[in-house]
Amino acid sequence: MKLSNKVAIVTGAGAGIGASTAELLASEGAKVVVADRDFSNAQAVANKIGSQAIALEVDVSSDANIRKMVSDTIAAFGKVDILVNNAGFGCFGTVVTLEESDWDRLMNVNLKGVFLCSKHVVPEMVKNGGGSIINLASTISVVGIKDRAGYVAAKGGVAALTRAMALDHATDGIRVNSVAPGVIASSYYDKMFETVENPEEFKKGLAARSPLNKMGVPKDIASMILFLASEDSSFATGAMFTIDGGYTAW
């Protein structure tokens, strides 16, 4: 059990990568806070895990919500050892076509959410002598993609913030890394399929981004998050681990 006696918070854990991560961390002994803005989804994941998990309704763009999430975690489990900043979303748009309101939402959830969660969790980790923070970046923070200007900018910010946090908190015993998923079959893309003109062609195009010619699955990312959350990665900090089926190797 790689995470015995550890306590983890996973944001955006009601579905997809977040849910898979919460379940995998729990299977390795961690007590898990399943945080999601959709409480019913979070509760379903926590129920699946069992008594070592609690569900919380959390909007990561709200400072008050994050403060409550951390205090509820401490009340339930006494500490925080692992933070997985997974909550996020994307939408189409260039700098010309993207609405200002969508830009603000993208930044508030994808980037400000990482800032707020880390801001209030780091002091709790310091009390325990350290911890591990894993931020979900994306391959597009490295290579970019057309018609996703706001999402690319936000995820690029996550990658940069990860490096800054790793330097700032190394002496606190806190390791900070990011994971950059490629195309992962999840509810994120399910919602996109509802908006595009030809979903099947869109799926084929997504798979073709990878030399393996397939989409990944949430556990592909959860397994890397487990590695970074555990002592197996004790010398890793300030790094981005790319899991994309070779997309960035073209």
Automatic annotation (TrEMBL):
Q: Which Pfam families match?
A: adh_short_C2 (PF13561)
Q: Which organism is it from?
A: Leeia speluncae
Question: What family does the Swiss-Prot or TrEMBL record give for this protein?
Answer: Belongs to the short-chain dehydrogenases/reductases (SDR) family.
Task: Give the keywords, sorted.
Answer: Oxidoreductase
Which PROSITE patterns does the annotation name? ADH_SHORT (PS00061)
Q: What is this protein called?
A: SDR family oxidoreductase
Top-level taxon: Bacteria
Tell me the Gene3D superfamilies matching this sequence: NAD(P)-binding Rossmann-like Domain (3.40.50.720)
